[in-house]
## 1
Amino acid sequence: MLENKKIIILGDRDGIPGGAIEKCLENMPLDVVFSTTECFV
Amino acid sequence: MDLENQKRVKALAEEHGKENIIVLLGGADAEASGLIAETVLNGDPAYAGVLTGVQLGLPAYHVLEPEIKNDIDPGLFDENLSMMEMVLEVDEIVEEVSSIRKQFLGD
């Protein structure tokens, strides 16, 4: 379902950071257009 | 959801079209994940950011939901996500995020 989609990644510092999600999508036919890691204080 | 990120998401939805976008969440718990899912689907429930009253209708999934997990290479999943899958309350997160999708997208 991710194929050929524009992906927005909203990671969480206390959960799964954006960078970890990005690494999982490597080599997939999709386009990560924004990736960040939010911090809830 | 972070106010600056609301601006970025709104601009990206306008640029690429909501039908082409999927939002992936890494939230630590059901409440945090649900709030972000609601924000990108139906507007900011905290009435704080630019998405207040803006129904972008972007499909949001937590990265540990089966629909997403099954798309990810198992080796990369093990390397990057399996540890957090053991720590987080995955069932609660899945139930919350999927129910919000159902509420606002009907699926």
## 2
Amino acid sequence: MPTDKRTERAVLLSVSILRQGNYLIASIYAALDDDELGRFQRELIRQVSEFRSRGVIIDVAALDVMDSFGSRSLRNLAYMARLLGAVTVIVGIQPDVAFAMVQLGMDLGKVHTALGLEEGLVRLDELTGAGRLSPASRPK
Amino acid sequence: MEPSEDDGPQSTSGQKGEAPTGHEQLLPELVAHLRDNRTQLRQEWANRITDASLLSSMAPHEIFSEATSVYDNYVEVLETGSVEALQHYAQNLSERIIPQGVETHEVVGIVLLLRDVLARSLFEKYHKDFSLLNRILDAYEPAANRIANTVSVSFVQERERVIRQQQDAIRELSTPVLQVRERLLILPIIGVLDTQRARQLTEQLLSGIRAHRAKVVVVDITGVPDVDVSVANHLVQTVDASRLMGAGVIITGLSSEIAQTLVRIGVDLSKMNTVGDLQGGIEEAERLLGFTVRRAVDANRQED
């Protein structure tokens, strides 16, 4: 099944990057150290470029902490993907994490966020104009 | 305060190094004197309370009956040296008088007045024998101070307990997160928004967003009396945190005064989606979610 293709180059055990049509879905399963974040960033951008993806979802639901380096990396990732023509939606930020990030003044900038994977996919459809999953009730 | 004070009047008098047998008899003598003159002293005390216009929120007969109980307790403490019963009574008294709006200074005031009234009567009785008066006061003063202390502390403790209880109640009640439509939550904020409350409110909202899978939240601040820099910053934080959870926030209920204040103090609310009133906010949220609401009458007419 091509949508479930996991590349050999994603050597990271705590991350998976799945291709779903024009979208890439990256899930982070455990806290990444700075080095792993760097590798994850390179790998994801490489795949965006290779598959000419239109959208990227980064699922961080498994993370119960997010430090400033992590949030900056995610933000940079989104900006890099943007330069390659892909919209990024970060999904699954836990309430505690969201609150801590705000308290500590961390910011994801203009990066899009959504509650969960499903909402993230809907959001990507809206943003890219794909309309694949768009509900009939969508405005305009 | 003397360290011996906690050991009760007996040991205090013993410590002075004077004939202990004489001192041990002094307290019973003192107590007997106060019992004998109970009616007169109590009346005098009640008069002094009225003169000082303390306990103004209580009726005269209430003051008199409380004064009687306090007086009897007072004498009992002098006699036994144990403040436990008094503590209990003081707590009970506080529970009764706090709802009537009795202030701390009044409670401390009346206990000090009683101490003065009793001391005066002792002066009067023993003024001929100065050394006896001295010894009597040695026995009386520590006990009297302890009583004043106990009553005041009990009162303040009770008050603090009531305040804490009320704070908890307000906190519980004041931050409902309500779902009005699928994926649309309303958070009406009523009352002062301090740091602790803002934090709690944000936490509730975030868990509400997850529980209801909300996409839009309308935060109504009509009931917030004052919006200053810190309140505005709390709101910005709440909005940012909700956005991280993928929910958009619409702030409603900003009055024209608040709008002017915010612009004058230079709070940047440009990131925030604001609508004048709750109705407008809900309409905007419905638009964002793709709902169209129309009157059944109008809808029927269109179909016809």
